[in-house]
Design a protein that fits this description.
7-stranded parallel beta sheet; single chain; alpha/beta; about 250 residues; 7 helices; globular
Length: about 250
């Protein structure tokens, strides 16, 4: 972790930071001395997560936001900037999936997934960019998925949203490069968390996923967090518009 000493004191906003991967990312930033705000939809869960993080360092607070509503996203980013005194790093982690056969996906479900995973991501980055551009610096890290690069069953809307997020990452990187704002993405494979554990109790599904991963295992949140820290640090100052795949080799086949 000595390599990431430059993250000390950085002002970091993490969407979807109350549990799972988002919470692991927040814990890592807090342990490195960053000032962190996590967001989510459930105030009670967010409060518990912030209390847990503040046992390590009293530098974490939380904001409630609805990623499908642009006004809520704008208000959340503006308030985070006010509390932090600026913004150095945005981790766009909030996302959802509703696994369903393509023939059964409703318009409402499609909109819910795309509005959270792509629309919400864009407008969060847009608002953050408005604060980062005047300071001439910023790191935006979008959490996407290996499903941006491969197809998979019952994930037509999810794959579409994540594929769009990869292209969004490239577009923002090109447009904001002149302002020294680096925009990158991290694409994990399936991650084993308390939220996905129930899904993997289906033996056929678990075996199919493992069969597709040459390294032979699911990702741990810490596997993904390492890539996020790298992109947020000075080690990655000449990297923009890229997506780091943390997929155990799935997309290499």
């Amino acid at each position: 972790m000595a390599y990431f000493s430059d993250l000390q004191g950085k002002r970091v906003l993490i969407t979807g930071g109350s549990k799972g991967l988002g919470l692991d990312i927040a814990q890592a930033f807090v342990s490195l001395g960053a000032n962190v705000i996590i967001t989510g939809r459930d105030g009670e869960v967010l409060a518990e997560a912030a209390e847990q993080l503040n046992k390590k360092a009293k530098v974490c607070s939380y904001l409630i936001a609805e990623m499908q509503e642009v006004k809520s996203v704008y208000a959340m980013v503006d308030e985070a900037v006010r509390q932090l005194g600026g913004l150095d790093v945005l981790v766009n982690n909030a996302g959802i999936n509703i696994p369903k056969k393509a023939l059964e996906v409703t318009e409402g479900e499609w909109d819910q997934i795309l509005d959270t995973n792509l629309k919400g991501m864009f407008f969060c980055a847009q608002r953050a960019g408005k604060h980062m551009i005047p300071q001439g610096y910023g790191k935006i890290i979008n959490i996407v998925s290996q499903m941006a690069f491969v197809g998979y069953y019952q994930r037509a809307a999810y794959c579409s949203s994540k594929g769009g997020a990869v292209q969004l990452t490239k577009a923002l990187a090109v447009e904001w490069a002149e302002h020294q704002i680096k925009v990158n993405a991290v694409a994990p494979t399936f991650i084993e968390t308390e939220m996905t554990r129930e899904m993997f109790k289906k033996r056929d599904f678990y075996e199919d996923v493992i069969r597709r991963i040459p390294l032979g295992g699911l990702a741990e949140p810490s596997d993904v967090t390492g890539a996020v820290l790298f992109l947020a640090s000075d080690l990655a100052n000449l990297i923009t518009g890229e997506t780091i795949k943390v997929d155990g080799g799935w997309t290499a086949i």
